[in-house]
Design brief:
The protein is mainly α and 65 residues long. 69% of the residues lie in helices and 0% in strands. The protein contains 2 helices and no strands. The chain has helices spanning 3-27, 41-60. The radius of gyration is 15 Å and the shape is rod-shaped.
């Protein structure tokens, strides 16, 4: 089992969740508890970073058999 590929998949999934949560919080004007309208950009940006780093890690990792 390739740990880099698994970690890349995990980062990709966390990135997707962060992007969705940030976009939803921004469109709803903040979720009312901890995230305001403009601070919703933070999970969105972190989600983008996680997503693209996960995709990059999966693409550059060679398969070992």
């Amino acid at each position: 089992m390739n740990m880099k590929r698994t970690f890349g998949a995990l980062l990709t999934i966390l990135g997707i969740v962060g992007i969705i949560w940030g976009a939803y919080a921004f469109l709803m004007g903040g979720d009312g508890v901890a995230v305001g309208k403009f601070t919703a950009a933070v999970p969105f940006v972190i989600g983008l970073i996680f997503f693209f780093s996960g995709i990059s890690l999966v693409k550059t990792t060679k398969d070992q058999t």
